[in-house]
Amino acid sequence: MRVLIATDAWHPQVNGVVRTLTSLARSAKTLGVEVEFLSPDGFPTVPLPSYPGLRLALPGGREIARRIEQAKPDAIHIATEGPIGHRVRAYCRRRNWAFTTSYTTRFPEYIAARWPIPERLIYAALRRFHNAAAVTMVATPSLEAELRERGFARIGRWTRGVDTDLFRPDRAIALPFPRPIFACVGRVAVEKNLEAFLSLDLPGTKVVIGTGPQEDELKRRFPDAEFLGLMENGRLAAHLAAADAFVFPSRTDTFGVVQLEALASGVPIAAFPVTGPKDVIGGHPVGVLDDDLRMACLAALTLSRKACRNFALQYSWENSARQFIGHLREVASGSHAHPALTNLAAAAHR
Predict the structure, then answer these.
(1) How do 269-271 and 245-248 pair as beta strands?
(2) Any idea what DSSP says for residue 55?
(3) Which residue among 77, 212, 294, 344 is least enclosed by CB atoms within 10 Å?
(4) How far is CA 50 from CA 212, 248, 304, in A?
């Protein structure tokens, strides 16, 4: 089976969407499924004003069609709702081809944090985008329930995984900071709500790993915090394992893969009780969820690092890939009644 994934988010971006898609491709290959990407590579781009250093692709319809036809996919998945996602959606709709989508980013909340645009209008546009799909994949039960209430149809579960060989407790290095060390990893942007973490009165040291448009502002406002910049792979794993608690202040993430990476490193979570943390941690003794984030941070220090590691071992990218591929096969076999279902059934079982 050959799958083409259309995505506006791609390297050199470092975020949960990109990590998820690259991990999916590796695991799918071991299951006999080839994944190709229709990414921004090769398209003209423009800078994103709110995200210095990042650029938005401007794909042409003819080039989109050429790339799809060259890939000869058995199934098409649209991972993002940007220009590439919209072009591929239009291509599939014109040809009455079935396709799937995934809802991974809370654009209504992200946009509302920057501009005075009503969330209901953005949700209406996203609902129209995704309801043309045979299945819209989401990572958590609470997000699924929320989207159903907002009128999203044909929703399926696609959970996430973690590389437990890369992220593990024995990678920890000695950091030259007073303990306890409270770490946060992610894009330094307003939607990540880092101010809620950095403004806390906590003992020890607050560490931020990542970069983004709010970095200079937060450095000025919180000079006692340690901003370590962008890290990946082994370097990120070593610093993450060195923390005493992982703080996840975002109220808008749909999952937060980095939570699993922290748990695999033996680091307990402190977060707000919102979508993402609620679904990852739930009632398990590997994190503390509370509207009082300071209390959650301090309580997290008392949790078992071994329990965190054991919990993360339940997640694998292979199981995640199986879920993803399962949805494609169901769509291809006609298990989901939808006007766009077409001739993928035979191809899906190659």
Answers:
(1) parallel
(2) E
(3) 294
(4) 9, 22, 39
* Residue 115: partners with Cβ closer than 8 Å, 6 or more residues away: none
Block residue for tokens 């990852």: 280
Q: Residues of CATH 3.40.50.2000 domain(s) within the chain?
A: 2-161+317-348, 169-312
Q: Mapping DSSP to helix (H, G, I), strand (E, B) and coil, where does residue 24 land?
A: helix
Confidence of residue 338 (pLDDT cuts 50, 70, 90): very low
pLDDT digits 0-9 by tens, 260-306: 999 999 999 999 999 889 999 988 999 999 999 999 999 999 999 99
For the domain spanning 2-161+317-348, the CATH number is: 3.40.50.2000
Which of the listed CATH numbers 3.40.50.2000, 2.102.10.10, 3.40.30.10, 3.50.50.60 matches domain 169-312?
A: 3.40.50.2000
**Cβ neighbours of residue 167 under 8 Å, at least 6 residues apart?**
237, 240, 241, 260, 261, 262, 264, 265, 312
Tell me the pairing of strands 100-102 and 135-138.
Answer: parallel
pTM: 0.84
Q: Report, in this order, helix, strand and coil percent for the chain, each rounded to 5.
A: 40, 15, 45
Q: For residues 312 and 160, is the Cβ–Cβ distance under 8 A? A: no
Please report the DSSP string for 146-185 in residue order.
HHHHTT--SEEE------TTTS-GGG----SSPSSEEEEE
